[in-house]
Amino acid sequence: IMTDGLEKHERNSWMKYSTWYSIRHIFIHLFWWAVGVKIDKDSGDTHLSHAMCGLCILCDNDLRSGSQEVT
């Protein structure tokens, strides 16, 4: 997924995604998977793969922001 993204987006652009952009991306792909559309027509990859990639991006951005610190 990340390698294919390089064809459309600049390198490391995923690091700039907002939390809500990532969440929207994840839910769109989960929705299509849940209604029975398993493959994303644009990429040929599964919608679950896209959702998992989105979760990884969201986790990475969250960790880099420091919001995981216990207060």
Name the features.
single chain, 71 residues, mainly alpha, 3 helices, 0% strand
Explained architecture:
- The chain is mainly α and 71 residues long.
- Helices cover 55% and strands 0% of the residues.
- It is built from three helices and no strands.
- The chain has helices at residues 2-5, 19-34, 47-65.
- Helix 2 (19-34) packs antiparallel against helix 3.
N-end to C-end Cα span? 35 Å
- What form results from the Cα inertia axes? globular
Largest sheet: none
| Total count of helical runs of at least 4 residues | 3
Number of strands: 0
Helix content: 40-55%
- Rg calculated over all Cα atoms: 13 Å
- The overall average pLDDT, rounded, is 85
Task: Give the ordered list of helices and strands.
Answer: HHH
The class by helix and strand makeup works out as mainly alpha
Tell me the layout of helices and strands.
Elements: H1 2-5, H2 19-34, H3 47-65
Helix pairs in contact: 2-3
Summary of the model, kept short:
The protein contains 3 helices and no strands.
